[in-house]
Specification:
This protein is an all-alpha fold. Helices cover 57% and strands 0% of the residues. It has helices spanning 2-17, 24-27, 47-59, 67-74, 79-89.
Length: 91
Amino acid sequence: MKKVLILSAILAGAAFANPYAKCVACHGANGEKVALGKSKIMKDMTKQEIIDSLKGYKDGTYGGPMKAVMTPQVAGLSDADIQAIAEKIGK
């Protein structure tokens, strides 16, 4: 049990250290996937488009079919996290 708790803490810390880590499951390691068959391909977006869309999801001003999924995903992201995601994957 102790090992499970330690491993969980390490994995949680790694996810917080890399804000893009939680995006990978749906968008792919390089932003190459159409998430849930509906999203834009992130690697084709500019850094500014990524920033604008993530901030829009966060404040409720952006989104179509993915809004219900993305709003809780971005709720805990800081502006620095959003910038880091855009830098990692945007053009």
